[in-house]
Amino acid sequence: xxxxxxxxxxxxxxxxxxxxxxxxxxxxxxxxxxxxxxxxxxxxxxxxxxxxxxxxxxxxxxxxxxxxxxxxxxxxxxxxxxxxxxxxxxxxxxxxxxxxxxxxxxxxxxxxxxxxxxxxxxxxxxxxxxxxxxxxxxxxxxxxxxxxxxxxxxxxxxxxxxxxxxxxxxxxxxxxxxxxxxxxxxxxxxxxxxxxxxxxxxxxxxxxxxxxxxxxxxxxxxxxxxxxxxxxxxxxxxxxxxxxxxxxxxxxxxxxxxxxxxxxxxxxxxxxxxxxxxxxxxxxxxxxxxxxxxxxxxxxxxxxxxxxxxxxxxxxxxxxxxxxxxxxxxxxxxxxxxxxxxxxxxxxxxxxxxxxxxxxxxxxxxxxxxxxxxxxxxxxxxxxxxxx
Length: 388
Hints:
Blueprint: H1 4-21, E1 29-30, E2 32-34, E3 52-56, H2 58-61, E4 64-67, E5 91-93, E6 110-112, E7 118-121, E8 133-142, E9 148-160, E10 162-168, E11 176-177, E12 181-184, E13 189-200, E14 202-211, E15 229-232, E16 234-242, E17 248-249, H3 263-291, H4 293-296, E18 306-311, E19 319-325, E20 332-337, E21 343-349, E22 353-358, E23 366-374, E24 377-386
Antiparallel strand pairs: 1-17, 2-16, 3-8, 4-7, 5-6, 7-15, 8-14, 8-17, 9-13, 9-16, 10-11, 10-14, 12-13, 18-19, 19-22, 20-21, 20-23, 23-24
Helix pairs in contact: 1-3
């Protein structure tokens, strides 16, 4: 019997506990994260800066792009460009230009699911600002010893044409709709977000759904080629999320608390690990005692005419004994003793085979001896281990 296995298991549990305890130590926490789209291509390998395309409606998936427009002049490149795949990073595109040839938003901050600033969509029978939509998501982490924290969201969005929804943790049971307001500006509406929301510990997302406006056939943006609508499309985001303390993380590599939803869960896990460690310690002690049996107790009596099976081994407060005695004289006893020979339990045997429940064996952890005695003679003995 090898006592090294429980010891190694205990060391593994201890190492795992220390790892969980150290989860929040190395996180690169701050009290403010710039979530602006201008950082889309900055430190993408190590940070959570990129906005990711997480959803597109069928109209957006089926749209095509052939290049950048300039003051509504159609690009004549005949090679259509399809949007990126779901799950890919959004693309920084060239600036959008309004009808007067002006750049309404800062250059270097426009995002799209296409690699150019103008898209074509098939004719529609009803004008709308929702059917041709894209959702982009930006991740961040709340890393705190508390269960929840107040997180402030303060940023603006410009989009051609509409912002349909802003949601935190979209697609989860804890999704939160973020209120926003509009202010009229050229080309598009500027969306303003200024709110504080209580968030739990762990990974979160800001999810923005924006749409390319579609006009019914014959509208001013329809292009004669196949009568498809030509329309600039893009979104820019400027601002940050913040907290009162350094609990926000923007690093991909930081070993943070994303493996647990809250501190309570971690505490419960640590309690389970501690209980397992205690039980492993008891098992180690019992196994060590078993290895010393040969030097500390009488020899076990084997028999070719009797069988004695004890299950489970080890046991806590109760165990089951199955026995069979050949040429049974009608006089037998099942005895349970400790290594010193002290009698703990005694059960009369009235038939040659059967099953007995041995219960209420109290006391410290110990190696016990189960014996069948008949006519003052030990017919067979076996050992078992009791662990509280």
